[in-house]
Amino acid sequence: MTPLRPRARRTQRRSGKRSRTAAALLLTAGASFGLLLAAPAPATAGSNLVVNPGLESLRASDAMPTCWEKAGWGDNDFTVTTTDQSHSGGKALALSVTRRVSGDRKVLMAEDSSCAPSVTPSHQYDLSLWYKSTTPDSSVTVFRHDVKAGWQYWTDLKTLPVSAGYTRATVRTPVVPPGTDQITWGVSVYGTGSVTTDDYDMEDATQPAAGAVCTAGDACVKGSWAVMPFKNPVRSMHSVVLHNGKVLLVAGSGNDPAMFKAGTFTSAVYDPKTGAMKTIPTPVDMFCAGHVQLSDGRVLIMSGNKAYPAADGSHGYEGFKDSYLFDPSPESYVKTNDMNEGHWYPSATLLGNGDVISFGGLKEDSTGSVTAEKFSQAQQKWLPRTEVNQTWSYWGLYPSMILMQDGRLFYSGSHVFGNGTPGTGASVYDYDANKITDVPGLQDKDNRDQSMSVLLPPAQDQRVLTMGGGQVNTNPEASRLTDLIDLKAPNPRYTPGPLLPQGTVDQGQGPKPETGAQGKMYVSAVLMPDGKVLETGGGLHDRADPVFEASMFNPATNTFQPGLATDPIPRTYHSSAFLLPDGRVMAVGDNPGNGTFDDHVSIYTPPYLYKGARPQITSVANNRWQYASTQRMTVDRPVVKAELIRPAAVTHSSDPNQRFVDLPMTVGADGTTIDLNVTSNPNLAPPGWYMLFAVDADGVPSVASWVHLGGPDALEAPKGAEVKGAEVKDKAAPMVHDFAGKMTEKAKAPEPAHTSHPVPVTISGCDRHYGAENVCVPTAFPKTVPPTTAGRCAWLKAHDYGVLKLNGRDDPLKLDPDRNGRACD
User: Fold this and answer.
1) How far apart are CA 238 and CA 575, in angstroms?
2) Which residue from 440, 411, 410 is spatially nearest to 424, judged by alpha carbons?
3) What burial letters (b/e) apply to 256-268, b meaning 16+ CB within 10 Å?
4) CA–CA distance from 586 to each of 121, 196, 534, 551, 575 (Å)?
5) Could you check whether the bond before residue 458 is cis, i.e. omega within 30 degrees of 0?
6) Quick one: which of 91, 475, 496, 770 has the fewest CB in 10 Å?
7) How many Cα atoms occupy the beta-carbon half-sphere of 304 within 13 Å?
8) pLDDT digits (tens, 9 = 90+) for 519-550
């Protein structure tokens, strides 16, 4: 007896026993809605969405066909076997019930995101299979995945008449309900007898004549966004994809002073498989902390918000020293030792040896931190300041520090709040030599606030793309500029990239087309399994004027594909977008200057998921990988590419650890047994958990399998090296290239030691004379706003600020001409 496993099977059990009469009633009901009256045309025109439709690929564990499972309920005896009595090929599935008191038994496509066909709400699909049967008590049964409630029974579509020889059964589904993203289906037997099935097919019922690959309309080239039927329970600013496939959403106080004063700090864990959201007790205000995933999969979270700015201007935001580890297994926080000082908005970069290095942010007294911090993988603690190399440089807030293949760090010029660093705005930092060398070429370097930089696929190419940005203090229109740099060059420098595509912008009067040089800040950029980069979301001005635009950057051609589907939800300040293990993209957050927060969750389905069935990784021989090793996987059909993608840990348009690592393939004679050659260089792929994707010739990816790269022994020295006079074990050395080895800019030695860098309390671009701490009245209004009371108040009204309290007596923006203590009333 096979126990009932999936939740969906329990759902059907509550419906009671199914009989021929019940099936007949169901068909009658279906016909009354016009769904089953007419015989559908043979489903042969388009792409078959079924994984392993001929049942030829088998699992080694139980000899069941890959992506198929047995299920059911009740008091009955049954067998499910793989047989050679096939319709075509060499294998078929035979389900036999020899005794039945109640319930049924089924063979179905697995309730797994890598196996279950993706569907589009409001579409209908033609399902077909070949079968032979000795019982009239069998039917085609369908389950659906609801994005909020998880897997659940949907309907029985067609009773299968007894047939001694193979015959084809075809049926069309009802309209797919809203909130459904996948279905599974197969055959259920609810009486004694046997059914043997083979050659399954599922196609969009609207597919045209032969030759078409996709019939999803605009989604074939633009993809599609769906706003989920549930809300984000926390005002999250930080998003981390965990190695169990869940997503950690961290809010802290969520930029809500009332929550801060009450000591109410929140996080949530979202499970994309079930749609469940679980709120997690959170010990301190992790609002605007730093975070990174350690090599063991725990999340290191550093600093956060000690205090909001004072209304009298005596201090700005303040950071604290506290640091915590989030463990995905118990889903709880554990405190580490303190950092050396506070860092509100710090960077966090994982190094090739598993250590974490952090720069920048604001100290406990609101000044800028000039202390570099290092978390030791070996000692599992923050090191004393004296054990960390110091240049005493102020790198700003959330400086984008990307690990290079030789262990140096590339500061890309992306940051948050204010100008870039002195000099060219971008540089290479050699930690071991403790020297900084400027990199020229970054365009408009002091207007790249909340731009985003990504190490382009694959990491082996060592190319970085920096996109968009603005300046919260002067508040110009955000930029369309992009810049590219090849860190393999002897003397690397930024060169102009293609301009960001333009979309529509809502400046308070509804969306209108962008014009001229209008671009966006708060850019989100996501590395995709097909080797491209999705950029989405953003705004035209500081915390205002959302831009609705998305495009796909192709590193192979250095071009954007404009005009993708756009997230219908504004995504500006405190928003993030990130890749899920099933190849879709999730977007959360929006925190405009009026202090509100958008709690809608959006999911983007890229065009590649409309191209038919996706390849399936049927096995990974070992999910614990070492550097310089060869790892074997099997797939259900030929693929052209495999890669590792590091799961996201993103906030404020910043995720310097995001990377796509190519896995060169050695393909076996069968075309589906593939050896993957793992880099020997931990700087290309720092140790930790990765998503392993296989991608076919159409750019369609598998669902990710999780693998762990590296470990304590993987970071030891190679044979021939000496550690305290002893030769260590035979192990390949990392291959490090002499890239960026002839830089012409003069390297800068450390500055004289000092305690901090002065930072104005207006660094966040907000005038604190008005409203609450989380309300951001611009220090500088957009240039199109007349510098008058009426002009400024009209802008604030159009952006839903409402009446604002005047904090104190000063009214620098002249928003309270009648001196009643209320602005724009």
Assistant:
1) 8
2) 440
3) beebbeeeebbbb
4) 18, 40, 12, 15, 11
5) yes
6) 496
7) 25
8) 999 999 999 999 999 999 999 999 999 999 99
> Residue with structure tokens 């192709």?
554
- What are phi and psi for residue 358, nearest 5 degrees? -140, 140
Using left for φ > 0, alpha for ψ between -120 and 50, and beta otherwise, residue 810 falls in beta
Q: What is the structure's pLDDT at 428?
A: 98
Q: Using DSSP, state whether 334 is helix, strand or coil.
A: strand
Q: Which amino acid is at 113?
A: S
Return the structure tokens found at 144.
């659906």
Quick: pLDDT tens for 187-210.
999 999 999 999 999 998 754 434
* Contact call for residues 736 and 681 (beta carbons, < 8 A): yes
Residue 47 DSSP symbol: -
Instruction: For 13, list phi and psi in degrees, rounded to 5.
Output: -60, -35
Closest CA to 674 of 713, 620, 624, 614: 620
Instruction: For 443-459, write each residue's pLDDT tens digit.
Output: 999 999 999 999 999 99
Q: First and final CA of the chain: distance in angstroms? A: 72
**Phi then psi dihedrals of residue 795, to 5 deg:** -65, -45
Phi-psi region of 628 (alpha: psi -120 to 50; beta: other; left: phi over 0): left
With 0-12 / 13-18 / 19 or more C-beta atoms within 10 angstroms meaning exposed / middle / buried, residue 294 is buried
Residue pair 585/663 in contact (Cβ under 8 Å)? The answer is: no
For residue 759, pLDDT over 70 is answered with yes
Q: pLDDT tens digit string along 92-105?
A: 999 999 999 999 99
Residue 264 has a pLDDT of: 97
State yes or no: pLDDT of 786 exceeds 80.
Answer: yes
Q: How many residues does the chain have?
A: 825
What does pTM read for this prediction? 0.88
- Integer-rounded Cα Rg, in Å, for the chain is 29
How far is it, in rounded angstroms, from Cα 368 to Cα 345?
A: 10
Q: Does pLDDT of 13 surpass 90?
A: no
Least Cα distance to 87 among 191, 195, 6 occurs for: 195
Question: Using one digit for the tens of pLDDT, what is the confidence trace for 43-85?
Answer: 344 689 999 999 999 998 899 999 999 999 999 999 999 999 9
Alpha carbon dihedral 667, 672, 673, 678, in 10-degree steps, equals 60
- Token pair of 488, please? 């393999």
Distance CA 254, CA 590 (A): 11
